[in-house]
Amino acid sequence: MAYGIKLHVWGDNACFTRPEMKVERVSYDAMTPSSARGILEAIHWKPAIRWVIDRIHVLNEIRFENIRRNEIENKIPVSAIKNAISGKSASLSQVVTEERQQRATLMLKNPAYIIEAHFEMTQAAGAEDSPEKHYNIFLRRARQGQCFHRPYLGCREFAAQFALIEPDSKLPPSYYAGSGDIDLGWMLHDIDYGDRMIPRFFRATMRDGVIQVPVFGERA
């Protein structure tokens, strides 16, 4: 029995930030696999399962919009947090009016996707865990619109709407159906948490509106 799922996600805006842009935020052309995984984990995740993204369907035309946003210049240093935890003197405050900066964001407008994915059991699975159990939990939560935290499209301020696509349901049409291959360039696949938090990339090609996601760790 297969335990794959299809989830329709959409929103007003999205920004899947390219890591090579250090200051200004510039979005990839489409959702990254790591962002798709984050949306699924917002609906259902336990240490016993690991989500694997198989395909991403791009439904709407890829359109960009440029805005300027206020952001905080710095983060509170981790060393200061550790000092505070250990009882040492440390400042954990930030003054917004003194650290505020205005930065440009090149974001996506009216994005919509279908995430095709499945999950694998991990070594953390116990006797009470089974694929059927977690599959049914995800289906129930997705049908009812339940989530642990609000899923988002790249940035937390861009909330994602979602709806489960039932196994026998017809997929929404893609703007790029019949368009052939479109090279989207190098795209972040995910962070390799088992190998020094190294980011892994793959060459993303959209074929008729569908991005086939390679197995994580395979050579691009």
Helix content range: 10-25%
Q: How many runs of DSSP E, i.e. beta strands?
A: 13
Report the biggest beta sheet as strand number plus sense, adding barrel if it closes.
7 strands, antiparallel
Order of helices and strands: EEEHEEHHEEHEEEEEE
What is the helix tally?
4
Family: Belongs to the CRISPR-associated protein Cas5 family. Subtype I-C/Dvulg subfamily.
Enzyme class: hydrolase
Protein name: pre-crRNA processing endonuclease
Keywords: Antiviral defense, Endonuclease, Hydrolase, Nuclease, RNA-binding
Describe this structure in words.
This is pre-crRNA processing endonuclease. Pfam families: Cas_Cas5d (PF09704). With 220 residues, the protein is an alpha+beta fold. Helix content is 17%, strand content 39%. The chain has 4 helices and 13 strands. Strands 10-1-7-4-13-12-11 form a 7-stranded antiparallel β-sheet, covered by helices on one side. Strands 2, 3, 5 and 6 form a 4-stranded mixed β-sheet that branches. The protein is globular and about 60 Å long.
In short:
By secondary structure, the chain is α+β, with helices and mostly antiparallel strands.
Topology at a glance:
Layout: E1 5-10, E2 13-14, E3 25-26, H1 33-43, E4 49-58, E5 64-72, H2 78-85, H3 96-99, E6 100-109, E7 112-121, H4 131-144, E8 152-153, E9 155-159, E10 161-164, E11 181-192, E12 198-207, E13 210-212
Parallel strand pairs: 3-6
Antiparallel strand pairs: 1-7, 1-10, 2-6, 4-7, 4-13, 5-6, 8-9, 11-12, 12-13
